[in-house]
Write a structure and sequence with these properties.
eight-stranded parallel sheet; alpha/beta
Length: 286
């Protein structure tokens, strides 16, 4: 896409088991579609080394490949409280790594049944405290928990970030924006039944929107259509290579050209994560 820096995927779990033994091909497919920046959020302490290694290993192919460190709310049941001390030490060490850009994926999930809400909140609040201590932005998981997350954010100074896969109300979206957050949109918006997500996408300020895949999750609508037709035999897997096609649909909903939309979401992501912007601006990745 001429005149554009490329596409940016602000949420992609390349370290997921679904991509085992296929990463070179997955990365090459993304590169062939002009995806030039990808954020890899860690989800558990055992995964910290993995996302850091991936960001380094494939940086020659994806110039803007970066990572964050954090403990996901769906993983707190297996986490040890010592993991929070380990996270703090890993953050301190990662500050010297230009590809480390923030803390995440952290947050609250009130959708999945059977989770210990108090334990989720303890891990979330302590990780927000680390974000404040280190002055780092965060990648937020906010499934059915927008108000609780907003309350926690108001209790401390956190320098923004991204509310990933946002699906709250318009009023909640405005509150996240006021607190300095961008809102992540991806494959979910490609479903015609996703009326609330589409409304948010089209009515919120363009300055608040970033693109994501959440690969291997949240596959776009057309992948399910292929499964129904029998063109693919198992549940579809999302990939960063699908980001440009997803983003083009989002741009059309906004009434924007491909170039204008890609430029806007790139700029928004760089604003949310200053270390990401610094990586590219300093010539580490061009």
């Amino acid at each position: 896409m001429r005149g554009n820096r490329g596409w940016i995927d602000t949420h992609c779990h390349l370290d997921a088991a679904e991509f085992n033994n296929q990463l070179p091909q997955i990365i090459q497919s993304a590169v062939s579609q002009d995806v030039r920046a990808i954020l890899l959020p860690a989800v558990c302490a055992e995964g910290f080394t993995g996302v850091k290694k991936l960001a380094t290993e494939f940086s020659d192919r994806v110039p803007g490949l970066v990572y964050t460190l954090g403990i996901h709310p769906l993983y707190v049941h297996q986490a040890k409280e010592d993991d929070l001390q380990f996270l703090a030490a890993q953050i301190q060490e990662a500050l010297s790594d230009s590809r480390f850009v923030g803390i995440g994926e952290i947050g609250l999930d009130y959708f999945v049944e059977g989770l210990d809400q108090n334990r989720q909140e303890m891990f979330f609040h302590k990780q927000l405290d680390l974000a404040q201590e280190f002055n780092l932005p965060v990648v937020l998981h906010v499934r059915r928990s927008q108000d609780a997350v907003l309350k926690a954010l108001r209790q401390r100074r956190v320098c923004g970030g991204i509310a990933h896969a946002f699906n709250g109300s318009f009023q909640q979206a405005e509150q996240f924006i006021k607190l300095g957050f961008k809102l992540g949109f991806g494959g979910a918006a490609t479903y015609t039944r996703a009326l609330q997500i589409r409304r948010l996408l089209t009515e919120l300020p363009i300055e608040s929107i970033v693109t994501e895949t959440d690969s291997p999750d949240i596959p776009p609508a057309w992948l399910w259509d292929l499964q129904v037709k029998g063109d693919i035999k198992k549940n579809p897997r999302n990939e960063p290579a699908f980001l440009p096609k997803i983003a083009l649909e989002l741009a059309q909903m906004r009434g924007l050209t491909e170039l204008d939309f890609s430029s806007a979401v790139w700029r928004n992501a760089m604003e949310a994560f200053p270390r990401w912007r610094g990586l590219l601006a300093n010539g580490v990745a061009q």
